[in-house]
Please model this.
Amino acid sequence: MAFICFNIAPAAGTETVVGERPRAGLILFSPLERVVIETSLGDGLSSLGEPGKWRRRLHRLVGVRSKTRLADPRLETLRRVAVLLRHHGALSADEADVFADSGFTTAQYRALRDVVYAP
Model:
């Protein structure tokens, strides 16, 4: 017989799922920003650009939905930087400026890089 725990609300200060290792660098981000970072780990580089005409037609034909941008520009910047760091390990000067202009700090950049970049 299996036991199912229906206690959905986590205790104060705990935000990890049982069996998951907490990511220390994520404490510099808000809970919503952490969700964006965690979900961006499954995004590829193709999610950063607009799909071309043929890709849109192919997706419509086979019923695949393209990933859309986040509505909040700040969160979209965070997602974009997380994807770029995961795939390239660094940012261009323009991307770093956009990240800083969105209100993120250098400490957050380092923490994000340490969390998402796996060489």
Notes: The chain has five helices and no strands. The longest helix spans residues 73-88. The radius of gyration is 17 Å.
